[in-house]
Amino acid sequence: MVKKKKKSSKRKPKNWFKKNSGSLMVVGAILLLVGVIFYFGTTMNFAGLFTIKLDQGDIDNFESTPTGSSYCSLNIPESSACTGDLITSTLTDGKNGFCRIAFQYDGGDWTFYGDVDTDSDGLATFTDSAEFSGFYTFGAYCIDEDGKLCRTNDESITINDCGACTDSDGGDNKDAPGHITFGDDVFYDYCFDDSTVYEYYCTSSDTDWQGHKLNCDSDQVCIDTRSGGVCQDIFNDGLQPGDEVGSWEESHVISNSDTVFEMELTPGDNEVQLCAEIERSSYKVTPMCNALPSQLEDWAEFVFLDSTGVVWDRTDQIFAGQEGGIDTFGNPDVIHVYWDGQTNFKGYMSHYGTCPMNMKMKVTLVVCE
Question: d(Cα 247, Cα 242) in Å, to the nearest integer?
Answer without folding.
Answer: 13
